[in-house]
Amino acid sequence: MAMSKMRRQEALYGYLFILPWAIGFLLFTLGPMIASLVFSTWKWDLLDKPTFVGLRNYAVMLKMPDFWHSLGVTSYYSFARLPLVLAAGLLLALMLNQRIRPLGLWRTIFYLPSVLPMVAVSMLFIFLYNPDIGVINFFIQKIFGVKGPRWIFDERTVIPSLILMSLWWVGSNMLIYLGGLQGIPTELYEAAAIDGAGVWSRFWRITLPMISPVIFYNLITTLIASFETFTQVYVMLGNRPMWNANFFMIYLYNHAFRYYKMGYASALAWVFFIILFGLTLLTFKSSSFWVYYEAEVKGGKKENA
Amino acid sequence: MVNPGRAIKKRHWLQAGILYILSLVLVVFFVGPLFWMVVTSLKSPAQLYSYTIFPRPIAWNNYITALRSIPFFRQLTNTVIIVVVNVVGQLLSSSFVAFGFARLRSPWKNRLFALVLATMMVPQVATLIPSYILFKELGWIDTFLPLTVPAFTAHPFNIFLLRVFYQGIPIELDEAARVDGASSLAIWHRVILPLSKPVLTTIAVFTFQNTWNDFMGPLIYLQTPEWFTLQLGLASFAGMYSVDWVSIMAASAVIMLPCVLVFIFAQRFFTESLAFAGLKE
User: Fewer Cβ atoms within 10 A, N terminus or C terminus of chain B?
Assistant: First the structure.
């Protein structure tokens, strides 16, 4: 009897400790998600009373060239960037894993840009990319003797310029790879070397399979982060909007906080959420084909963590 | 085959050469932009177009001009207030919640934790507009409240990180304290918290970085320049002075500096926890 009272008290305390999260979950996650689903059926500018319009916001969206274009721009940026970031991060991590010296200094050099505030970084790159006084075009002129491109100031080169810039903070990807690389048992390489496996076959047959869960993690986080690109585009191109830099988040921000079309913007947010969710799900589904989990092979059973 | 020693030597020499050039390219790519920012920030406006890496005379004044034009100290104060409240809020709430998930037995606990993990996948955009409307209804627009209060509801990733850590602490410690008559609150406060300093430091560092660097939150919720954070201030400052590159570079350098310092002093925490996040997922 006393025992069960103690257990009951413990359970009660358990809920009490979880309470701050539960409140936050209801107020700032679940509540808003449901609310935005409701708002997406309204026409609402925050001033007048909202009117119910059913699915019209969604119907309007599907007919808007801007909407499709912003999806296209965001996808182009995200999918073009993805392989570059994944490969560059892995290359840097492999370099660091080769006991390159001094390790700490190199790691700092590669990772430092990842911790810097995006607004300041954007300022820096506007300056570097300046077609007339920027240092990049100065070097292009000096070395190749030709005039450099207009970078973010040209509709044709704005996305490639943003992708190139985004490689500057590839360091966070690199660190996660490095964690994966350091987790590979050295015996595997030794055994392979004895069997006469060369550098390439060791990389393809040992390194890549062993870090495939880490590649998977990087793939999902990079894809989602790319789709949510906002700050650098807003800061770098806010004053001179470019048609080809009409990122989805910019499109949504403008409708919500510039034109105060809260209903339409909520519908956009839901569609965006479903797209992100679908991409994540697709990646998860595909992972059984290419991600190697040690535990599954060894014990043949799922982990019970 | 005739002289394998020479062949190997030559190959090594070639490898070293390639490695050397590669290193140079990487240094230029990763350090170059920062170097150019600092050099530019020390030039006189007349020197801006000269592309020299030796500003002469060194125009320290740019920093004073930049700091005066932003209302730097006002915005620094705003930013520091928001950052400190966020760090304190996350540390308190995350450790509190993680304690509940890791050390106390309540029915449905694991299902609720699955929900915590699921919310990690919810992007900010899904909650952005209703949150704005909620804060507007509460009259919180143009105050720090929308940028600070949510910090007291524990970020899912922090809960996750701390829960793993707490599960590694022997449960016998709790039981011994309970026999001595300690309440759950006392166990959290006296037993668990003192043991979890390293992981709490990691969370503090990440919260600092995220809050200091945040742009979209302040952009949406703050309207009066008096309440702007440094990021918001820099963005609007540059909008106003788009040709004054020496001042903009000086202001950017100043705003980056705390991140660089925190990173250098807390590098261990960054690298360990990021690697950890990758492995556990």
Answer: N
C-alpha to C-alpha distance for A228 and A244, rounded to whole angstroms: 16
Phi and psi angles of residue A156, each rounded to the nearest 5 degrees, phi first: -75, -30
Distance CA B256, CA B50 (A): 25
Structural contact between residues B51 and B30, judged by C-beta atoms closer than 8 angstroms: no
In this prediction, does ipTM exceed 0.90? Answer: no
Domain boundaries, chain B: 4-61, 71-280
Does the domain at B71-280 match CATH 1.10.3430.10? Answer given as: no
Sign of dihedral through CA atoms A208, A213, A218, A219?
Answer: positive
Using pLDDT thresholds of 50, 70 and 90, give the confidence band for residue A3. low
Q: Residue B129 is nearest to which of A116, A180, A262, comparing CB atoms?
A: A262
Model pTM score = 0.89
Give the 3-state secondary structure of residue A42: strand
**Cβ contacts (< 8 Å) between A224 and chain B: which residues?**
123
CA B200, B205, B210, B211 dihedral sign is: positive
Peptide bond into A50 cis (omega under 30): no
Amino acid code (one letter) for B261: L
Mutate to test the interface with B, among A23, A40, A107, A115 (most CBs of B within 10 A): A115
- CB neighbour class for B190 (10 Å; exposed up to 12, middle 13-18, buried from 19): exposed
Residue type, A110: F
CA distance B80 to A169: 25
**The domain at A65-304 falls in which architecture?**
Orthogonal Bundle (1.10)
**CA neighbor of B184 nearest in space, from B84, B101, B94:** B101
Spans of all domains in chain A? 65-304
Q: DSSP assignment of B161-187, as one string?
A: HHHHHHHTS-THHHHHHHHTT--HHHI
Contacts of A17 in chain B (CB under 8 A): 96-97, 99-101, 104, 184, 188
